[in-house]
Amino acid sequence: MLWRALLGRLGISLVTLWIVSVLIFIGTNLLPGDVAQIILGQMATPESTAALRAKLGLDKPPIQQYLVWLQNVAMGDLGISKAGLGAGLGTPIVEMLGPRVFNTARLTLLVAVVAVPVSLFLGLIAAMHPGTRLDRSITFATLNLISVPDFLVATALVLVFAVGLGWLPSIVYLRGDETGWVLIKTLAMPMLTLVILVSSQIIRMTRATVLNVMSSPYIEMAILKGVPRKRIILRHALFNAVGPIVNVIALNLAWLVGGVVVVEQIFSYPGLAKLMIEAVLMRDMPLVQACAMIFCTTYIVLIFIADMATILSNPRLRHPK
Amino acid sequence: MSESQQETSPSTQFEELPDAPPKRKVKLSWPGKIGIAVVIFWAIIVAIGPTIAPYHEADILDEELFIVPGSDEMYPDTDFQPPSKIVYLGSDYLGRDTLSRILFGARTTIGISFIATLLAYLLGVTLGIASAVGSRFLDMSLSRVNDALLSIPSIMFALVMIAALGSTIPLLILLTGIIYATSVFRIARSLGQEVMVSDFVEAAKVRGEGLWWVITREILPNIAMPLATDFGLRFVWVILFVSSLSFLGLGVQPPMSDWGSMVKENLPGLVYGSVAPLMPALAIATLTISVNMIVDDISAHSGGKLAKRMIS
Predict the structure, then answer these.
(1) Would you state the pLDDT for residue B70?
(2) Is residue A156 part of a domain?
(3) Which of A274, A296, B143, B247 is placed for a possible disulfide with A20 were both Cys, Cβ 3.0 to 4.6 Å?
(4) The complex's ipTM?
């Protein structure tokens, strides 16, 4: 039964991924400008344009182009970026993506390692003492933080730590060989911003779900039996709140990979999101497609994992009727 | 996620009469009341902002205004002026009045966000209910397409579309509406499904009521309240989203003022200690925080279930 549920979810994820690939292909084909013409620039003569179009496979009907692209992507060949294509061979996208994926993954992991435990802890503390001054200040602070735009959080931090105190650099300048303390200091500003943004969401969610579970009859039973409050929350409530909490964490991680455009832009952090913005502005279609596929795949994989956690943590979902 | 709700529902379901969903009186505590006051304030500004603004949004102020009487400085700087009697909130990077631009920008930012949220609701609720009451195939196909759209980072989606079609206000509204319709769809669908399996809908079906009757008399009244609260949250996301787009230079184009782009264009002023970038950011913050305070207050009184749906 468990395997059936798992396979069903896996199938749904794959179908979603396929629809995503169609949407991305249609979306990027809406971008104006003929790639061949843009690559050739001023050297474009009708003959050379036609030759390059044939070489890139742009003269074929869209459906055939899509199938070729899909096949290449499935084989791990993301195509060749437009950058430098006019002069020679162009850069394979896989090579361009490498350092960006590394940067994004590094930042995401650092943020997750700090944000997840801290926010679970604060969320549980708030849920354990609902209505107290501590709970109300946590709720109020996180409510304010999820309401303000991310650029306000980022600029406020720059104002305090870079302009005011002068402790941290306001722009990330990565040489690539930083380790340990220097690396932490270089990444501190975007990390701090993202930790604040992500934590406030997870804190609110943890508190809300745990409190929601707390109002169910079996918790009431446990209270009446005289089980200590701490034990009720950690042994009874928390396990039943795992599903929604894991979901929020997954959504936030997905956001960290693809949605942090504003933060990457402010600190000019060389991550994936910034690469995609550059690609769109350069009309570098294959690169846009590759980035978009990475974002969507990450999202779908994370949501799949979150769903699995939900199913595994809930016996009734493990054995569907 | 809905498991725990279903577990408690049998005890409460029969207390509500089938034909009359209980009228809930919403009582607000003081944060909610402050929130409502601020939202009403901004609503008034949207209506009369441009008429009470001291200058026009695109006016670059004359140097003469800033000449201090008795000083021999004939050509004072007009950009990034601190707040004074001439410019109550200071001037921006081109020497325009920040207050006037905020008053004009209220209409752009709030107007676009509000219409986009309405559009998202129109699309999301219609399709969500269709998915909840429709055939299994319809539900499957709508849900898969929705999941696919949801998995694309919204800013990236908007970025590609705006790069393709150019940044105009109707496109901005349409895009934002579609992007946010995906999350409204999920909520409307799950709420609709919850109602569809309830006993009173069963009873109505047995009684021989048609699908339209069930939708308008049973489903809509029962999901109206949670959706109304969610509308507030969604509105906040949309404001933040539209502002972020403007902040990236993809949203409202100059010389029209808009709070997001005002923050961006005045960002260099931070170094000189100018308040110009902070004021529009604070304007956004007051509005979004107030809406969230209202929503929080309402959902605190209705059992906190809504808080769960906040994120998705």
Answers:
(1) 63
(2) yes
(3) A296
(4) 0.77
Cβ–Cβ gap A259/B154 under 8 Å: yes
| A261 within domain boundaries | yes
Q: Which fold has domain B89-311?
A: MetI-like fold (1.10.3720)
Asked whether residue A41 is assigned to any structural domain, the reply reads no
List Cβ neighbours of B297 (8 Å cut-off, separation of 6 or more): B28, B29, B31, B32, B35
Mean pLDDT of the B76-86 span: 70
Q: Domain residues of chain B, as ranges?
A: 89-311
User: Across the interface, which of B281, B289, B304 has its CB nearest the CB of A144?
Assistant: B289
Is pLDDT at B207 greater than 50 in this prediction?
Answer: yes
How far CA B26 is from CA of B223, B262, B302, in Å, comes to: 16, 37, 9
Q: At A132, which CATH number?
A: 1.10.3720.10
Range of the domain at A190: 105-282
Are A51 and A57 contacting, i.e. CB atoms less than 8 angstroms apart? no
pLDDT (tens digit per residue) in B231-256? 888 888 898 888 888 888 887 877 77
Q: Which chain A residues have a beta carbon less than 8 Å from that of B4?
A: 212-213, 216, 240
A295–B156 C-beta distance less than 8 A: yes
Unique residue bearing structure tokens 């709700």: B5
Chain A nearest C-alpha distance from B284 (Å)? 7
φ, ψ at A232 (rounded to 5°): -60, -50
Cβ of residue B149 closer than 8 Å to a chain A Cβ: yes
Q: Is B34 on the interface with A (CB under 8 A)?
A: no
Note whether B80 contacts A: Cβ–Cβ < 8 A: no
Average pLDDT score over residue span B71-85: 68
Number of domains in chain A: 1
Give the residue among B248, B275, B279 at the shortest CA–CA distance from B264.
B248
Nearest-angstrom CA–CA distance, B308 and B310? 5
Chain A contact for B225, CB < 8 A? Answer: no
Residue B3: pLDDT over 70: no
